[in-house]
Amino acid sequence: MPRIPCVVVIAAVSFTLIAEARPPQSSLIAQPFSRLKQPSRGRPVKDVSRPPSERVDDPPLPISAQSTASSPSTASNVTFNGHTSIQVNVNAQGNNIVGDAANEPSIAVNPVNPKQIAIAWRQFDNVASNFRQAGRAYSTNGGQTWTFPGVLDPGLFRSDPVLGFDGLGNFYYASLTIPVNNPDGFEMSLFKSTNGGVNWSAPVYAYGGDKAWIVVDDRVAGAGAGHIYETWTLPYSCCFPNDFSRSINGAASFQLPISLPNPHMMWGTLDTDSNGVLYLGGATLDQRGHVFFRSLDAKNPAVTPTFSPPKFVDLGGFSGGFGGDLGPNPVGLLGQVWVAANPGKPGHVYMLGSVIRDNDPTDVMFARSVDGGQTWSPPRRVNDDPEGNFEWQWFGTLAVAPNGRLDAIWNDTRTSGDPAISALFYSFSMDEGQTWSANEQVSPKFNSHVGFPNQPKIGDYYHMISDDGGANLAYSATFNGEQDVYFLRIRQDCNHNGIDDDCDTSCGNSGDRCDVTGCGLSVDCNHNHVPDECEPIEDCNHNGTRDICEIGANPALDCNANRVLDSCESGQDCNGNQVPDVCDVFLHGDCNHNGIPDDCDIAGGHSMDRNRDGVPDECQGACCDCDGCTVRSEYECFVIFGIFSGPGTQCGDANACHRPVFANDLCTQAEEIPSAPQFTELFDNRCAFLSGPEPSTEFCPDPQPIYADLWYQYIAPCTGTLQISTCDQTDFDAIMAAYHSGASCVCPSSDATFLQCQDDSCGIQGGPPLMNLAVTAGQCYTIRVGGWNGSIGSGELSVSYLTACNPTDLNGDGVTDFKDFARFVNCYGPLHAGCAAADFNHDGVVNLRDYQAMFVMFGK
Q1: How far apart are CA 697 and CA 789, in angstroms?
Q2: Which residues are registered as beta bridge partners of 475?
Q3: Digit-coded pLDDT (tens) for 236-288
Q4: Burial 53-78 (b: 16+ CB within 10 A, else e)
Q5: Rounded to an integer, what distance in angstroms lies between the CA atom of residue 563 and that of residue 430?
Q6: Is 325 left (phi over 0), alpha (psi -120 to 50) or beta?
Q7: pTM summary value
Q8: Residue 315 — very low, low, confident or very high, per pLDDT cuts 50/70/90?
Q9: In 678-827, where do the E strands start and end?
């Protein structure tokens, strides 16, 4: 396995070269390249390592000739440890289709007839092309066999498939495509099936964008029942700055999109609870943390939905991907973020994801809220392998059964030690995530680096739907050397009698899943569809009735959901509210994790609460960002790019922070753009002031001053024409000027070095500017971006050469890769013979600034 030594060596070199640029709460080897350079003023940085978003890069190719050759007599069904994975993408004879690829699956199970299941996926007819279409299959026997009748919309590019279902058994298929009349655009289509996925309606326009997700309110009655909600990633969408829409008429149409609150989210999911409350959770748009939103009125068709202020959820790290061969999914995600509501407990909501951590490349992490997302538990690790062993737990996926059981699955490299070799693992929780079952391997190992359809990834997610008898999973694997989609039912059979637990306790009607021999013979005193013989036998109060039976008759006797009577736990009630302390901690939190309710810490004098918000001072501190000073937790301050003064500080204290002046608000501390021929960064001038002395603006199209300006400096790696653009995603009336600084970067004090000024040159009146500059290799150029007449907002600054330029391709093979990186490392330090090409900014030394350019161009 030569890959492992390579990873270790590069990790060591990387740490040496960029130690000072290492962001907090990250594992350097696992993070996206964009995070190696934190923004000088704390604004988001676009993930420049990410490949272009969903685009038609290759033409469709004919189905591989291999697919008509001899193939296995049966589908590639695989059994491991009693779990059978059944191949879904099969031909009319039920055989494997050789030479194709299928990944990124989504699943729907009919709640009216659970034997009807549909799975959608990205279908690549020929692995020589990354042209993908809308794969789909259905089963009428609970997933034992599958029919793949061909793709939806044959010949049309489609991606990001997501399935949903309503309470009446209708299925919905959301699919991303590129508008025929706008090759740079994005849009979603929604298909509807009324017969279990056998047939689908014509597509309905649904707005949308890249990495969208949908959820359907699957209640059969009540306000919002049947509503379809969707969200997508803001920068790659039809409708910037909007990223949310809904259908209130069963997918006949979708309403005009609206905008989620800042900081928006990406790679997220949605869910609804039994009251129709809508929950959304995902990574923040800058990948720095995780965010949660709630809408109480999205279910009301008469109003435009509103959302709660964002809540930042600490999952112990950040979500990412696109790590190249160093990771298990080279140009794909390591998993999206899952939000799920407890069907039987309104307001109990959960988040789970595979997150990059300080001491592991990825772990499956979980957090819980029991108050509708207003407060969250500390993060809990679900995978039980040793921490710090550098194994990958990726594609973490969450589902909740009607009885409240939490199911989690993920890909895991612990059995191989190789990032490319994973197996599927499973764990469940019966106490709302406070404890998790021992991890169980439920599939053989497979190589996630084979079978690539001219696109080196195995999709971006799996999808799972749970019932009281088990979990229904759609996932991708390469058991036969190519990417295929599999269905796996992970049964709950705690007494090992071959019958699903819920069927043990109650038989179904003729033809139902629970119409099986031997069903209904187990006692279930607490009505949770788990046989009593599998549950705790304790009778802690010695009254002759098992605790689980007492709790089943009166759930209020177990307020912390640990299946132990509250009366048998610590009887302390420090605040005299008639609720045991252990329950107060579960329901209301314990921010300092000392086992004492926060209000008792304060009332008892153990903690101070100077701002009287009910949170001990040691859990918060003064946090300063461009809006001023607020008291927040350290994690919340980190996510909003604030300056944290330390626990216990208050705004106004002598040692508290002040509203920051971010570095490149001043030209003397301009942000240096890497000397690369392509670079893109998000910017935000809402915190910026005028900084002096300022050059005049008499040569600009309009003599108005450039207010709220930001400063950048760029040393040209090549001689030619450089395009500097703010055309993409800029949402305010921006203006831009450029100055020539010479061989060294010097701030302009007058218009003596002025080169050009642009306003509205992207073709939008009152919009962003674009300029083309003739530049000379090794010369420094100062770029000034601000708002016309004081306008403020956010945007995207990009630099790109209109002249051929790729200095980071040191070996001239057309791509910047590890071979170039190896040459670069050998040249690091003072310039020596044969290393001039590695000095991309021509400053006489190969250092961190050149290293940043190498990272920006890696893979290009």
Answers
A1: 12
A2: 486
A3: 889 888 999 999 999 999 999 999 998 899 999 999 999 999 999 999 987 88
A4: ebbeebebeeebeebeeebeeebbbb
A5: 9
A6: alpha
A7: 0.78
A8: very high
A9: 678-684, 706-715, 720-725, 734-742, 754-759, 770-775, 780-788, 794-801
Q: Show the CA angle centred on residue 378, arms to residues 25 and 316, nearest 5°.
A: 20
Contact 622, 653 (CB under 8 A): yes
- Residues 795-807: b if buried by 16+ CB within 10 A, e if exposed: bbbbbebeeebbb
**Mean pLDDT for the stretch of residues 696-721:** 81
CB 184 within 8 A of CB 211: no
Q: Tokens for 192, please give them.
A: 């509807």
What are 408's strand-pairing partners? 398, 427
Residues 466/109, Cβ–Cβ less than 8 Å: no
Residue written as tokens 């003739």? Answer: 774
46 pLDDT higher than 80: no
What does the pLDDT look like over 620-630, one tens digit per residue?
999 988 778 99
- The Cα-based distances of 611 to 97, 170, 499 in angstroms read 65, 51, 57
Helices 818-827 and 3-18: crossing angle, nearest 10°? 50
Q: Which DSSP category does 215 fall into?
A: E
Distance (Å, whole) CA 597 – CA 584: 6
d(CA 137, CA 197): 7
**CA neighbor of 73 nearest in space, from 51, 98, 55:** 98
What one-letter code names the amino acid at 709?
A: D
Residue type for 240, please? F
Q: Is 161 exposed, middle or buried (0-12, 13-18, 19+ CB in 10 A)?
A: buried
In this structure, the strands spanning 671-673 and 706-715 are parallel
The first and second tokens of residue 647, run together, are 């626990």
Q: Both tokens of residue 859? A: 């893979």
Q: Give the E-state strand segments of 690-731 in sequence order.
A: 706-715, 720-725
Q: Look at the block and give the residue holding tokens 């179904």.
A: 508
Both tokens of residue 412? 């895991």
Residues 608/601, Cβ–Cβ less than 8 Å: no
CA 626 to chain centre: 26
E strands in 619-748: 621-625, 628-632, 643-644, 671-673, 678-684, 706-715, 720-725, 734-742
Distance of CA 846 to the CA centre of its chain: 35
* Cα angle value 834/836/837 (rounded, 5°): 100
pLDDT digits (tens, 9 = 90+) for 733-760: 888 999 998 888 888 877 778 898 888 8
Q: φ, ψ for residue 661 (rounded to 5)?
A: -100, 105
CA distance 695 to 711: 13
The residues that bridge with 193 in the sheet, in sequence order, are 171
pLDDT given for residue 45 in this prediction = 30
- C-alpha 638/C-alpha 627 separation (Å) is 15
Is 51 buried (19+), middle (13-18) or exposed (0-12) by CB count in 10 A? Answer: middle
In degrees, rounded to 5, the angle at the alpha carbon of residue 58 between the alpha carbons of residues 52 and 61 is 150
